[in-house]
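Researcher: I'm preparing a figure for a lab meeting and need a structural model of a single chain. I don't have an experimental structure, so a prediction will have to do for now. The sequence is pasted below. Please return the structure as tokens so I can convert it later.
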Amino acid sequence: MSEVLNCVPPAVNRVIVMMQSGDDALVFQLTLPPGERRPVVHKNGRENFQRIIENCENGILKRIR
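Model: Understood. Here is the structure written out token by token.
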């Protein structure tokens, strides 16, 4: 994600978060066309950069209430 956004690597975790009013979250998600299987991760544990660029969504999620 840091390469896609050209920034310092963010902390990553997979915990359930209860956002409060006014909280912001950076969301980054790999997306695949319907029916396509999840890609095989290369030996170094990273997906091909170009494939990530072509198949990702990112944005800011803000809780307003």
